[in-house]
Automatic annotation (TrEMBL):
Similarity comment: family membership: Belongs to the class-III pyridoxal-phosphate-dependent aminotransferase family.
Name of the molecule in the record: Aspartate aminotransferase family protein
Cited Pfam families: Aminotran_3
Required cofactor(s): pyridoxal 5'-phosphate
One GO MF term: transaminase activity
InterPro entries named among the record's database cross-references: Aminotrans_3 (IPR005814), Aminotrans_3_PPA_site (IPR049704), PyrdxlP-dep_Trfase (IPR015424), PyrdxlP-dep_Trfase_major (IPR015421), PyrdxlP-dep_Trfase_small (IPR015422)
Gene3D superfamilies on file: Aspartate Aminotransferase, domain 1, Type I PLP-dependent aspartate aminotransferase-like (Major domain)
Length: 458
């Protein structure tokens, strides 16, 4: 099919996620055709270094043939098996067991979803069920962080703390509450990590006191906030909020949809501080984007509370047709093998210091106010004034300028509207590819700086 007819078909029929409908009609689609390792190729023949692993998900890189084979073998043998009526499939059982083995200790029970949003939604449903079944039905409120992202379902988008995901959607709903993000770069206490941590704990306690301790079910957070601008809390923050939740008698839920599967270094970001959440949500790197899948992992305490609760003999009415899809599970098993036996996790850890040093070096650039990273999850925050940390005016459309220049320079990253460039290269990245990524990023920054409208707004 000729690219321009594809362009027209796309404009006339395909609705794109998290995109302005009219804006997309005017701009048109960029059709991605193939991928190999760190690189994508579009329908016009451009080779693009993917510095964002698709949507921070293709952690093992493109073109991993062993995954293709695992999927094809499973699809040939049995493309679908329901999990209803006590049925199951071998890869789903094996993957649940493998995840339980690899996850923080005690998270032994796994419910598979299709992605991250429905993992968050499922976690919320199980939490509601748990407190109802264990005789504390008043515990319904959930607290999350401003600038957090927890998906696009009605519940997940309400827990999300980003106005762009609330606008016109009538969320947050009752039960959904927010406390400020630790955000060291924009926190007046940012220079004092202990003070940032103490502040978050105090804010959580104050919110619980305001809502009434008996009415709060859980606190959800990302160990590193991704879509809110790659906000890396100070070391010790995760432990402190986890401990506060235990003290407050509320469940602690770690949303590791982005941070899981080596993105920040270890297999799960919680491992960095040996934090064990009550529930954990994962997706993205679980299958590395080769097939859709997410999961909720829960402790035995939650599982037993639901299992032995008010109506132990009746079905627990939560399920998707594609829960524990066998093809996705077969993909997940092979992806986990690649991280561990295939050396991809270790490779990501080896290249991460180069990434960190490269981003930090870019703080000398006139546009860059902050560089931050955890493993291969990183960001540059661009500011119009480094002293006041003033953001660029929205009508400058800095994100569009960055994305357009990046594309022309053969690099894809996430340009957020508030001037943050999000980066999440695949964990298979080698040193030369990392240097190329950093060079193309620097060139892009130089070119954007040279645009007269940008210069004038400095
Ligand atoms: N939680 C977090 C932390 C995420 O980053 C995302 C997706 N970016 C989600 C949930 C939702 O996942 P999905 O897009 O797979 O539904």
């Amino acid at each position: 099919m000729r690219p321009n007819s594809l362009l027209e078909l796309d404009r006339d029929h395909l609705i794109h996620p998290v995109t302005s409908f009219r804006g997309h009609e005017a701009r048109g689609v960029t059709v991605l055709e193939s991928g190999q390792g760190m690189f994508l190729r579009d329908s016009e023949g451009h080779e693009l270094l993917d510095a964002f692993a698709g949507l921070w998900c293709v952690n093992v890189g493109y073109g991993q043939n062993s995954i293709v084979k695992a999927a094809a073998d499973q699809m040939t043998r049995l493309p679908y098996a329901t999990g209803y009526f006590h049925f199951g499939s071998e890869p789903a059982i094996q993957l649940a067991a493998r995840l339980a083995e690899l996850a923080p200790p005690g998270l032994n029970r796994v419910y598979f979803t299709l992605g991250g949003s429905d993992a968050v939604d499922s976690a919320i449903r199980y939490i509601v069920h748990y407190f109802n079944a264990t005789g504390r039905p008043a515990k319904k409120n959930i607290i999350a962080l401003e600038r957090g992202y927890h998906g696009s379902t009605m519940m997940g988008s309400g827990l999300t703390g980003l106005p762009a995901f609330h606008r016109n959607f009538d969320v947050p709903r009752p039960w959904q509450h927010h406390i400020p993000s630790p955000y060291p770069y924009r926190n007046p206490l940012g220079g004092d990590p202990a003070a940032v941590i103490a502040q978050s704990v105090a804010q959580l306690k104050a919110k619980v006191a305001e809502l009434g301790a008996d009415s709060v079910a859980a606190f959800f957070c990302e160990p590193v906030q991704g879509s809110g601008g790659v906000i890396v809390p100070p070391p010790g923050w995760l432990t402190a909020v986890r401990d506060a939740c235990a003290e407050l008698d509320i469940l602690f839920v770690a949303d590791e949809v982005i941070t899981g599967f080596g993105r920040t270094g270890p297999l799960f970001a919680c491992e960095t501080e040996s934090v064990v959440p009550d529930l954990m949500t994962v997706a993205k790197g679980l299958t590395s984007g080769y097939a859709p899948m997410g999961a909720v992992l829960m402790s035995e305490r939650i599982y037993a509370g639901i299992a032995d609760g008010a109506t132990p003999d009746l079905p627990i009415g939560h399920g998707f047709t594609y829960s524990a899809h066998p093809v996705s599970a077969a993909v997940g098993l092979e992806v986990l093998r690649l991280y561990t036996e295939g050396g991809i996790l270790a490779n990501g850890q080896a290249v991460a210091p180069r990434f960190k040093a490269g981003l930090e070096a870019l703080t000398d650039h006139p546009l860059v106010g902050d560089a931050r990273s955890a493993g291969l999850l990183g960001a540059l925050e661009l500011v119009a004034d480094k002293t006041t940390k003033a953001r660029f005016a929205p009508d400058l459309r800095l994100a569009d300028r960055l994305a357009a220049r990046g594309y022309a320079n053969g690099i894809i990253f996430r340009a957020f509207g508030d001037g943050v460039i999000g980066l999440a290269p695949a964990l298979c990245c080698n040193h030369e590819e990392m240097d190329l990524l950093l060079a193309r990023l620097a060139l892009t920054l130089d070119q954007v700086l040279d645009e007269p409208e940008v210069r004038r707004s400095l």
